[in-house]
Amino acid sequence: MKATAGACALALSIVLHAPSALAKTPVATGTGGAVATISEQASQSALGILNAGGNAIDAAVAAAATLGVTDPFSCGIGGGGFMVIYLARDKRVITIDHRETAPASFTPAAFLENGKPVDFDTAVASGASVGVPGTVRGWHEALERYGTMRFRQVLAPAIKVADKGYTVTEIFSHLTAQNERKFQLYAPTSALYLRKGKALQPGALIRNPGMARAYREIASGGVEAFYEGPIARAIVDAVNKPPLAPGKSARAGRMTMADLANYEARIRQPLRTTYRGYEIFGMPLPSSGGATVAQALNILEGFDLKGMPRARAEHLYLEASRLAFADRNAYLADPEYIDAPVAGILSKEYAAQRRSLIGAQAARKVSAGDPYSYQNDQSVPLRPPAVKMQRENAHTTHLTVSDKDGNVVSYTFTIESWGGSGIVVPGYGFLLNNELTDFDFSGPHPNVPEAGKRPRSSMAPTIALKDGKPAFTIGSPGGSTIITTVLQTIFNYIDLGMPMDQALDAPRLSECNCEATSIEPGFAGSEQARALEKFGHRWDAAVEEIGAANALVFNPDGTVTAVSEGKRHGVGSALVQRRGH
């Protein structure tokens, strides 16, 4: 018998009508499966799959596919991502790395002209910035290895949304307006998202028959339809000869059909640390998120944070983040190209050494440490010079899903910048990533461009266990601030004792080893800010809110609480299969 989402679900969702608007955080508690995303339609897609008998992996792919339609400027099949999965039957955590890769033609000089780095924004809006997309291969691996359904079933909800259309919200219109210049470069992008060269107004209906076509071809032809068929040819043509509007110009890329056909996702063991009775599992390299969050937690673990004033605890959080970022920026990159000192970075002994550097006042910028001394193998000679942190755009999405059997997915995926490269693939309606701008444009550095290499990421989908069982999940978009959002939410939840909705709502402070800490609008001048200024902290006010996190909390009574953002990016939606207390 077919179950209806309306009969079975508690759905609490809100629309963020402007980037700075405030609204109630969506929270839902109950039994059965649970889902939290930034989109009501995506959450409903996941819930429908759960109600139809699918598991958390099936539902996560369904939600992700729908987000590719409704949140196309953040994610989609033209990009890549990282998925962390808890498998209840096996009582273990695994990860799927489907980060984009550089084409075989890529060299360390890819973003240099006359020996100097090209303009960042020019590089973004070009075919040269497009990495080989990994999302569809990642979904395929997830479904084949750990799911119960096939593409035909999990893509059906997204196809329906793409065919019927969705209504432009104020935030969607705002984001389109921010990207008008980039979108005006490309004829298919302008045709889909602009009217007479301007952003669609709130209330307009967008249909995307091209994306519906792409999903139908994948549903019928499987993963090969994307990587070897007409979609692959359309991607290669769009990268190598961008579909420019009349009178426009952009750098071309050099991608081949072989680049797509040879793309592989990686099943990797998660990074693991312990923190105050929890096991924290995150992504390994090439995402720096798992290692940096874990190192900062290891540093913080040596302090009795609950026994001190909040301002001092937050000072220590910021300084731990600063130290972890110094090592992250110096050492971490694709593990298939460099031998990064991850074991040393995750060492509790190394954390103690780094902890000893924290003083009573903010340190400004700090140097990377020497984790090699804490490696099992100390023969690695690399000691990269200090470099300025490469700019990262803050535009990604995160979702999290659980099912009645206890499987859990924490999934972050992206096309990098808002709107990625700006190139919509002609005939197929999806935007291509600009992920290759996540490389450091010049070296020497572990994260310089190379053929086939995956650029370093900050994505940090996280699953925490306690007593061997899921305790909570957390993840967020936000470029390098992903790491600090995840870290601060864990700190708020475990150390400051906040309920998860309050942990997400709290003002975000992002310290990435910079001269000043990034803060959200409205924080400067607050009592909390003044208290931290006594510790020497200085502020760099962001123009928009930081992150858009989603979380699940697994309660002692067997219920699960889904929590989404209510006041930051997009639409927050938290749903459970059966309403609880």
From TrEMBL:
Q: Which organism is it from?
A: Telluria aromaticivorans
Could you cite one Gene Ontology molecular function of this protein? leukotriene C4 gamma-glutamyl transferase activity
- Renumbered to this chain, the signal peptide range is 1-23
Q: What are the protein's UniProt keywords?
A: Acyltransferase, Glutathione biosynthesis, Hydrolase, Signal, Transferase, Zymogen
Supply the Gene3D superfamilies for this chain: 1.10.246.130, 3.60.20.40
A Pfam family the protein falls into: G_glu_transpept
Q: What's the subunit arrangement here?
A: This enzyme consists of two polypeptide chains, which are synthesized in precursor form from a single polypeptide.
Q: Which reaction does it catalyse?
A: glutathione + H2O = L-cysteinylglycine + L-glutamate; an N-terminal (5-L-glutamyl)-[peptide] + an alpha-amino acid = 5-L-glutamyl amino acid + an N-terminal L-alpha-aminoacyl-[peptide]; an S-substituted glutathione + H2O = an S-substituted L-cysteinylglycine + L-glutamate
- Catalytic residues per the record? T396 (nucleophile)
Annotated protein name in UniProt? Glutathione hydrolase proenzyme
Q: GO biological process annotations for this chain's record?
A: glutathione biosynthetic process; glutathione catabolic process
Q: What is its EC number?
A: 2.3.2.2, 3.4.19.13
- UniProt similarity note: Belongs to the gamma-glutamyltransferase family.
List the NCBIfam families hit by this protein, alphabetically: g_glut_trans
Its pathway? Sulfur metabolism; glutathione metabolism
Ligand binding (L-glutamate): R99, D438, S457, S458, G479
In its record, the post-translational modification comment is: Cleaved by autocatalysis into a large and a small subunit.
InterPro entries in the cross-refs: GGT_bact, GGT_lsub, GGT_peptidase, GGT_ssub_C, Ntn_hydrolases_N
